[in-house]
Amino acid sequence: MRTINEVIEVDGLEARLLDLEGGESEAVLYAASFVESEERFVKYNTVQWVLYSLLLILAWGIGFLMLLYLPVRRFVLRTDIRSRRLYLTPNSIVYKVTRPVPFPCFGVLQKEKHAIMMRLSNMRNEMFSTQMSPSKSLRQDSTSGELLLLQKLEEVGNSVKSKWSN
């Protein structure tokens, strides 16, 4: 387990490395949001909240307060999922979220997480340096480029998972 100083040092190194590699002026290769899964996310968390409140009603009676809080909880969940963004840049994967605190009148929490990917820049170079044969159609060229990008992203994801599991 890392100490706080090590974590701060790693975050500082990560920020400096991002600044050296282009920082905020990097081109975004791909941007994604989580709006499509909003309805399922809100339903799942609502059902979970109601079940917890029913359990607490049976145990101590506190669940009534939780049921009164349910509309606020649904609002917080909706704004949370709508604010999530994922960006793929040449040198990093950036996850940004601005979520309200449990009581929205107290403001919002802004979180930005960078995952530096050295292989990502190599992947971009590989993707554009591959020689496409003139017999392929343009649609096949774009599809193969997308497949190569997805394969490389999967490799990067697996390497990050193995890093965190050690």
From TrEMBL:
Matching InterPro entries: DUF7642
Keyword Metal-binding listed: no
Domain DUF7642: 80-119
Stretches that traverse the bilayer: 49-72
Keywords: Membrane, Transmembrane, Transmembrane helix
PANTHER family, per database record: EXPRESSED PROTEIN
Protein name: DUF7642 domain-containing protein
